[in-house]
Write a structure and sequence with these properties.
Helix content: under 10%
Number of helices: 0
Strand content: 25-35%
Shape: globular
């Protein structure tokens, strides 16, 4: 389910807080994914939560 409040154009201005690399948008999981840091940052209520403590670790 996509969140109608999330502006995908905002992604262009966001970078990973750990590596400063670009992020990809996973619409299914409502996450911003940093492949470089192997972290997925959640999007809650249309707002990306860019805190490392809130991120999910990727395998």
């Amino acid at each position: 389910m996509t969140d109608p409040n999330f502006d995908r154009h905002m992604l262009e201005g966001l970078v990973c807080p750990v590596t400063q690399s670009t992020l990809s948008y996973d619409a299914e999981k409502q996450e911003l994914v940093s492949k470089a840091a192997k972290l997925a940052f959640p999007i809650r209520g249309g707002i990306p939560i860019m805190l490392v403590d809130e991120a999910r670790k990727l395998d």
